[in-house]
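G., before I forget:
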Amino acid sequence: MRALSVLAAALAVLTAAAGASAQQPTPDQTAEWQQVIAAAKKEGTVTLYSGHVGVSYHSDVAKTFEKKYGIKVQVLEARASELQERIRTEQTTNRVAGDVSHNGGSSSVNLQRAGYYQPHGYLPNAARLKSEFKSNGHRIPLFVQSYGIVVNSRLVKKEDWPRSWLDLADPKWKGKILADDFRALGGGSAYFNVAYRKLGKEFHEKLARQGVVFSRQVRENPRRVARGEFLIYMPFVLADTLIHEGLPLQAITPAEGNPYVAYDVGVFANAPHPNAARLLVNHFFEEESQMIYVRSGRTHTIMGLDDKVPKEVEPLVNAKLMGAPDPDFNAASMKIASEMFK
Amino acid sequence: MLDHATLSPASRGLSRAWLARRAMPQDALWRSLTLTLFVLMLGALTLYPLAMLLYGSLSTVPPGEAGSFSLAGYRQLLRWEALGILGTTVAISLIKTVLGTAVAIALAWIVTRTDTPFRGAIEVLVTLPFFIPPILTALGWAMLGNPTAGSINLVWMAATGFDWPLINVYSHGGIVWHLMQYTMPFTFLLMIDGFRAMDPALEEASRMCGATRPQTFFRITLVLMLPIITGVFILSFIRGVEAFESPLFFGLPANIHLVTTEIYRAINHNNVPDYQYATAISISVMALMMLLVFWQWRILANRRFETVTGRGYAPRVTPLGPLRWVAFGFAMLVFVLCVVLPIGQLLVSSFFKFYGFYSADMLTLAHYRAVLANDRFWRSLWNTMILGSVGATATMIVGSLAAYIIVRTRLPARRLIDVLAWLPWMMPGIVVGVAFLWSFAVLPSWLPIYGTLWALMIAYITLAMPLSVRVMNGALAQISFDLEECSRVHGATWLQTFRRILIGLTLPAFLVGWVLTFFMVLREVSASVLLFSVGNEPLSIVILRLWEESKTGEVSVIALFMLLLIAGLRTVHLVIARRMFQTR
């Protein structure tokens, strides 16, 4: 038995060593990367297209990148549907202005399938990714954002707070629920994609009878709840708890967990600044960049940061998760939502 | 020297043609080439995007992709939903025009025909909303009239104890109200000179015949002003159909769609953009505009200015007695509602963490710090200054050349130039945006306009061209041909004559047109929203984006900056206009 343990330990050490050596860059890769840095500095600028609007961390990461490499980062933020069309027009007319894409999982999958991403090639920081967030050669998960429920804590007694997603079907919430639109690309469709498969058709038919009101103003919606216009908003970006401090809002992670979306980064095909694009993508996985996301309440995708999560954001970063959207179910899910929620 | 005024109409025509020949450069080839290039440029600004719009409405695929042709876009227009949108647009524009013009008539009457106190100040104050971009007043009213968090409703509910709001801007009424705020000063500005020029003897005769003040107003003043009012009414109605900001801010959240927001939604809010439908709507809106413009031309062509008689008259006013203070109060109410309240709301919101939560612990200067540290703000301010100054200069040069050819030559191409310069008048900003989006996307790669500042610049020049041509037409028409002839007789070249006589005498009008075009660039949203790209966003787009991101505090700060800029420009405008008036 003891011999077996020793053998197992030896095997583990060997495997780790082999893995470590596999993650070590080859001299060719090191030399190539130095060339990428030099070429990126010559390019001098890089443009990021992000479908994640109304958040400050793009500019925070951009500043650290600009400081480190002296390369200017321009950011275009737009809603997923608008951004997707802008990218399509640029790619089909060969007038590509964006270099790096930052989009929710479903949009990213669509963009890759349409051929709008190019392989990102060797990136030193790719070796730091957690095993569940590996790159597929085109797209790399940058962070994870989960969606829960938020209630007006002044108008809803604690004992009445919904503890499960299924509680939202309770008739007492009829006409009092505001939601991000399930029928359009974004947080609403991500929720529906996951929840429809996990919680079922029947629950959502009941939810439809609750007279849920849709609004795509995702940052404004929680404030409408805080003002008492509605009592509940869902799906609520859990990380937004931090930007609404001072308002009478209580974020809730239901018993089943939160649907979540991994936001991917990738390099656009025919990017005008391909080297700066690769350098920026790599920079997203530096510890300082990942900690910006962690401090904003989002979950990191690289190893070695689990112990560095600040106490105040731990409940947000480590919230229980229910599942991620299935890209193949996306179109069907939006169609079902459109039929169910007229 | 020819006495131009004493010639018969026929010989005057000959004389003009002769002068035109003398006034143009001697080199016929050079002249033809320049003229052809100019017509081609106007065609590129107007006919090319129109052709692309038509192509887009028939193409089954988005720009840049190979596909076939069909009438599916037009078939979609025949759905009840699309017809309903068209009907709602017409109804809303009609209502706001009726109400807005009625208030403008009352204000014009108060300022020109009554003894209401501080009429000079009233005239300046009630025209202010014309110069404030609608997006800024929309922001203000969105925060004033939100049913739950709007300041007016918060005050109302606190004062009365009721739990229902006094107003809700997210409604048909909200759209009408916001559109009216632009209609009132717009129609007021266009009508006031007509009211001012009217011989008071006509009203006095009515009063002497025993008519009351209201009878005189409705039977004499209003009837005499009817030709002008009708022309202004149609113009205002067209503007209402073209409006984008009001339905975007107050219609979309309430699921109310008008044609402009429907075009925007079809391209930017759908999972798969529906260009064919969007371009088909654009074509149909243009057809509607064309009908209205032709109707307007017919009315203007047949109008008779019988308000101004050949007899001299003293500009007398109707004494209102104690009612003059009621008139003064009415004018001030308009000013408070259209200017003080929305700007006051922007000021308040700029100091609070979240709008609608007005407690001491929510006070902050963070929005000012955020805006001052925001690269996007500074970049867009710079872009707006470039677009405004270069765009206004280019537009006025193009407009001046077009006006010169139209007014001061007998060239056969002048009618074509007149029509080309007028075409954009019938194109709402969002339609120009869609048309140029298609136009730039399919250009060969050696002409990289798509996604650059040029894309916005070209759209702005197109949109502002009718204004610049009209301003310069008026100015050039007032200059006697004798002056040009005199200059030529004294040995000046065509270029010297053009520079010293025509440019010299029309410079004030050129500057007024320049400032008005700059204002247009500042307020433009609907074309920009489709044509901007990263790095070339104008200020109005940054405001719209920040609003969509619910950064109301930062939006308010930028709006206040923009208002300061506008105040400066308006001062320059007034100074130039005053000098122009004194020169005459």
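Confidence is low (pLDDT under 50) at residues 1-15, 305-310 of chain B. Chain B touches chain A through 37 residues (CB under 8 Å).

More on Monday.
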